[in-house]
Amino acid sequence: MKHRHTPWIVIVLTLCLLVAQGIALAQSNTVYFMTVADPYVGAIRQLLPEFEKETGIKVVIDSVPFPNLQEKALLELASGRGSYDLISVDMPWIGQFVESGHVLDITDLVQRDREELDIADILPGAWEALALWNDRVIGLPLAPYYMYVHYRTDVFEKAGITKLPETAAEFLDVAKAINDPGNEFYGVSLAMKRGPSSITDWAAYYNGFGGRIFVDPPNNYATAINGEIGIFTTKWLKELSQYAPPGVLQYENIDRWNAFMHGKAGMVAVFNANSPQFETADDSQVQGRVGYFHFPKINASDPGSMPFGGFTLVINKHSRNVEAAWTFMKWLMSKEFDREWVQVPGTPGVPRRLSVVSDPELLAKYPYFQLIYDAEHSGLADGVHYRSRLPEWVQIEDVLGLELNLAFTGEKLVEDALSDAAERINEIMKKAGYPVNPEY
Amino acid sequence: MISISRKPMASASRNRELWTPRNRVWLLMLLPTLVTLFCVSIFPSLYTLYSSVSNWNFLKPNERSFAGPGNFLKLFREPLFLDAIKNTVTLVVGAVLAQLVLGFAVALLLERDLKGFRVIRTLILVPIMITPVVSALMWLLLYNTDFGILRYLVESLGVKAPLWLGDSRWALLSVALVDVWQWTPFVILLILAGLSSISKELYEAAKVDGANWTQTFFFVVLPSLKQVVLVVTLIRVMDTFKFFDPVYVLTKGGPGSSTETLSYFIYRQGFRYFEIGLASAASIIVLIIIVTMSRLMIRALQSSRDFE
């Protein structure tokens, strides 16, 4: 008799605990942040105690390897649980994340704290590509990754190359001139494995040559990849791959910059997130011997371009902690933080502000800031057209990746591969309801 | 009339027996198992079936509609899906055959109780214990063209090493090799167990009849191990059909579509494009293929038992 009420007591206590836990979670001053495991996470972690001490907000960072981030983040958002308040989203996924309706529109918050954010000082290209979607603010540009060519100054000097290559033809000539397979040293390193890596490279050179993914958005979403510039880029890359390491067809992003960092290649185009690693990584064999220049153009008189990708920081629509998350975001975007995090040794962040990329002291330390400043200042930084941000991009990337790979391996003619890819991409766009007119 | 009236009576009495107070306790004790089975197996299967006839993209949860057989028809018009079927079947046949041949050879060798073989028998099991992703990452390093040991070994023989993962003539073979390396020990283990269960008298009888090693193998060992081989083949075929990790890590389905497998195709549809309807339809097709093959093999297994 004595134990008759025990089960009920246990049930009531458990329910009380669950309710208390729910209330605690809803009112907690802890921000949960899911991010890609890129070097900038190290910089945030190092500077975070300052923020936590100042505001009393605790930040839990969960860094996820890049290949798992997209599915983990989308499944988390779709669950509606709000377990993570903040999520870092890769630029090509922005449409997918925003259109699925799980990202908080922060236009009003930005408007409210406009002065504090000093948007005029944020790199304008980064703001356009990483913060805006259909004229609404959906996130803050956490880590814009600008892409340019890294080259070996000592190798260029030894080969007597005094003028940096500006056009596609000059780039090819330089790659040929410094190529020395007998000593396992190659002109250039590329990523040509099927998948997003090969698109990162192909789309960057294509963008540099003036290519665009779509003909005339928003009026015509037929793809332009099978046009003259697309065919030129693919044939040019095939030719260039003769002066690349023999395993380039199985190279991913990491292999291509490893080859450069380990002294196997004279040139590589990678994001600025990698630039500091060439100087500071323990296993780098190129320290103090790296220079930088913009992507080649078809003709010297063409305007050129600096493609960029990177990560935006969004608030989960189901977050129960929006104000705390917003406070943390503002801190991450502050001028002081930007200046500090680019200088964190080993795992530095990337610049997001004009005042930082034009700071003489920082410019002396990081000469490539000048390239970013020049491109942003002249409006040549291009994140929007480099790879599309539409929700359909993931499928487009796969289709294009497969066909380009067939062209690179020689299983298909370049023209056939691009025309097959274009046909499928146009189908995807039509099915998704975009206006598509391939006969432009 | 009598038989008709008896049947429901018998059934009713069986039902009464089933619900006696004593049986009720047993049935209640079975309930958690049945509920678990329903939650983790029956419900997901039925839900997959339901999803396979829906137009459903996970990113647009409110735009779900009935698709009928549309997803299935779409799959059979999709060249990459047909390539995935072809590659998976090639992989299953090639890898399982190689595992059986190698498994037999090594098991016959290890069956001899020579010095050091006991340690080797234990060490040989190590690949099975490694997570498939980790083993794939190890092979990624081995296949690396800059510092991979395979290139070094092949080129030290004076032969130019192929692009293991970058050449479509080699890629499928290279990913299959990972599966062979990882799962041959499993085959060895089961065949060793089978070998140890063969009566010594059978060997002696064969010896008395003047049978040589080959004759003993084909007329004594193989028939005795028929059931073990069928079970091993069944397990390996079912498992290899789900081949995913090495493709994901090593080739991403390339070069071209040369290593696109059914599992990788389903992963891309489900977790990259979030096309749940299409991914479910592809999963149902894989299920049908596996169930059909398993039924055929189980029937072969049963007939071999009946024959005995």
In round numbers, the mean pLDDT of chain B is 89
CATH-assigned fold name of the largest domain in chain B: MetI-like fold
Structural class of chain A: alpha/beta
Most residues in contact, chain pair and counts = A-B, 32 and 27 residues
Number of helices, where a helix is a run of at least 4 consecutive DSSP H or I residues of chain B: 15
Instruction: Please bin the fraction of helical residues of chain B.
Output: over 70%
Q: Supply Rg of chain B.
A: 25 Å
Beta-strand portion of chain A reads 5-15%
Oligomer: heterodimer
Distance separating the two termini of chain A = 86 Å
Strand order, biggest sheet of chain B? 1-2
Question: How would you characterize this protein structure?
Answer:
The complex is a heterodimer of chains A (440) and B (308). In chain A, 47% of the residues lie in helices and 15% in strands. With 440 residues, chain A is an alpha/beta fold. In chain A, strands 1, 2, 3, 6, 9, 10, 11 and 12 form an eight-stranded mixed β-sheet that branches. In chain A, strands 4-5 form a two-stranded antiparallel sheet. In chain A, helix 19 packs antiparallel against helix 20 (414-431). The radius of gyration of chain A is 24 Å and the shape is globular. The model of chain A has no long low-confidence stretch (mean pLDDT 93). In chain B, helix 2 (21-52) crosses helix 15 (276-307), helix 4 packs antiparallel against helix 12 and helix 12 runs antiparallel to helix 15 (276-307). In chain B, 29% of the residues are buried. The longest helix of chain B is centred in the first third of the chain and has 33 residues, at 79-111. With 308 residues, chain B is mostly helical. Chain B is built from 15 helices and two strands. Classes of the chains: A alpha/beta (440), B mainly alpha (308). The A-B interface holds A 70-71, 74, 78, 96, 99-100, 192-195, 245-250, 255, 258-259, 262, 264, 391, 394-395, 398, 401-402, 405-406, 409, 411 and B 58-61, 80, 143-146, 163-168, 251-257, 268, 271-274.
